Amino acid sequence: MKTTRLLSLLALAAMFGFSSCQKEEADVTANEISPLAMAKISEMGFNTDNVQRTEGGYIVEGDIFFSESDLQASPETTALRVGEEEQYRTNNLVSVGTSRTINVAITTSLPSSYVTALDEAIRRFNAENLRLKFRRVSSGYNILLSKAPAGSSYLASAG
């Protein structure tokens, strides 16, 4: 009698154990991108192919950086018209008032051709005579150009 009762309880417990349902959250490793982040990027109108996880955010379409806070923000846009050519819009506007100089530095791990290219880009931008100017510096920078992680589809990034 005792063993029959014990076997009945074990069988009942096994039945509940095997039939119980419980959702398990997928573990997101350090380099994986969560489905929520992919949905936010897609919702913003960007291609979700080849999204790369970096320190502090994501690189989309090879050259656009979104931080975690950028993905959490909800921009006030009513509609996105898709034309034949790609166009991007942002709500992040730069107001410089009278004039502003942004200091740009480049890491020593990049080849000298990058330094030359950066100097030329700065020269061309400053030749436009805008209120926003750029200057290459070795310290005290606002923007640091650094080498891209191994295996990425871009050469360097600013941030």
Automatic annotation (TrEMBL):
UniProt signal peptide: 1-23
Pfam family, one: Peptidase_M57
InterPro entries, sorted: Peptidase_M10/M27/M57
Key words of the record: Signal
Protein name per the record: Dual-action HEIGH metallo-peptidase
Organism: Pontibacter indicus
